[in-house]
Amino acid sequence: MELTPTGSVTFLPTAGTATAARPLAPDATALDALAAGYDIVRQPLGEILPRLSAVLAELVPHRAAAELSTHCAHSPFKVSGDTAPAARIAAADLEPLFLAGVPGAPWQGTARIAGAERPVVAVTSDATPRGALLVLVREDGAAPVDAGALAVTQALWSLVTSHFDRLATEATPGALARSRAAADTRARVIAELSETHSAALTGLLGVLRSRHLDDRAARATATELAVSALVELRAEADRDKAVAQERADEAFGRLADALRALLRHSSVRLELAPVDSVRHVAADVAHAARAIVRAVVLTVLEQETTTRVRVGWQITEQELRATVRDDGPGALSFCDLGSARVADRLDVLGGRLEVDAVPGWGTTVTAVVPLATPDAPASADPLRALGARELQVLARLALGHRNRTIAQELHISESTVKFHVAKILTKLGVASRGEAAALFHAAA
Predict the structure, then answer these.
(1) Rounded distance, CA 30 to CA 147, Å?
(2) Which CATH number fits domain 2-169: 3.90.220, 2.60.40, 3.30.450, 3.30.1490?
(3) pLDDT tens-digit profile of 140-155?
(4) What is the DSSP letter of 371?
(5) Could you report how far apart the first and last alpha carbons of the chain are, in Å?
(6) Domain residue ranges of the chain, discontinuous segments joined by +
(7) pLDDT at 226
(8) DSSP class of residue 247?
């Protein structure tokens, strides 16, 4: 509701009502700001940034708004505004502003956003555990924003991020499961793209630095490598969609082709241990194993004294062991490989990393990836197997509610609740409601 100047009360539209955002004028009162804050936080998550941008349109004129909310695993980076600058803004543009930001102290100046130096207002909030950043991209030559407008902008952003933190803290198990799945997928995609680009660029640098190629041959070879990398990048998605499983020897063959192209003009000698297994492995496991090996090889190549790299796969009934052995200084550690996100990739797959470094003799890095078996659980998170209604029932069951209470709260019959409880126990592989409640609390 909103207090009018006469003291009467006017109720604001309820959530879901289609109304235009009311921008805050430069002379807005505290009540106006409170009403605007209420209007913003009642929006669906995907509409909060556009509504905040619309509310601040007059107070801090801007062309685009972007946020980096580190609490959100599902979509931490969002953009709203004119298609011209907004379409080109990247999360990397916001990272320096996020690192330099001081909560409660809005900053205005110029920053490199969407490929150009642009005037911005950057507002940082510490209402979430890891902080959140709002960036308003302004018109060139825009007048500085006064302190009062910056204070209101800071207050609204702190309010919004407090709302975000509450939603994240009190998220339902279903939302948490979807968020974790999205985060896992994003981590894999970012890692794979980074490793693919790193491999292509390393190959190009090897060609350009080679003393055995003249200018004409170097240009032709570099062009061939670039074209091959583009073709491989574009074909990767279609290939992975089309193939559910790969034969182990064929999967290793694809890795071998990529490594040969990477080291074709390098002084480091590549040795490959052929895989003699024709067993089929899941496509995502094979793809992840290739990406991990590529990342390890790129790290190994950064050692100046390395002259030889040996790569091999061993396939057993339970696991795939990918080994990279070099003859370098024997100084690699988990920290060196951590920058390549190898450990993160293995954590997602339920695997592990083994590093055996012997000073003066080289390093052996082994990535162990478990292989799915017919009786293996579908996911490391048992809650992902449950449907939306089953998650609702389980959440109330974990609070100690009886079937009758659950039925009343969800507006279903007791027999339906009993049916859901039976399905929950079966899917979670437990024998009692207490065990199911314990699993729920462990996951949520």
Answers:
(1) 15
(2) 3.30.450
(3) 989 999 999 999 999 9
(4) P
(5) 34
(6) 2-169, 175-370, 382-443
(7) 73
(8) E
Torsion of CA 94, 98, 104, 105, to 10 degrees: -70
Given the structure tokens 């929006």, which residue do they identify? 43
| pLDDT per position as a tens digit, 207-249 | 777 777 777 777 777 777 776 666 666 555 544 444 457 788 8
Q: Which of these, 280, 196, 275, 290, lies nearest to 244 by C-alpha position?
A: 280
**Separation between Cα atoms, residue 115 and residue 414, nearest integer Å:** 60
Closest by Cα among 337, 340, 189, 320 to 251: 320
Task: Assign domain 175-370 to its CATH superfamily.
Answer: Histidine kinase-like ATPase, C-terminal domain (3.30.565.10)
- CATH code that applies to domain 382-443: 1.10.10.10
The pairing of strands 269-273 and 308-315 is parallel
Decide: helix, strand or coil at residue 327: coil
Q: What is the three-class DSSP state of 398?
A: helix
Closest by CA position to 263, among listed 312, 225, 291, 317: 225
3-class SS of residue 429: coil
What is the token pair recorded at 414?
Answer: 């007791």
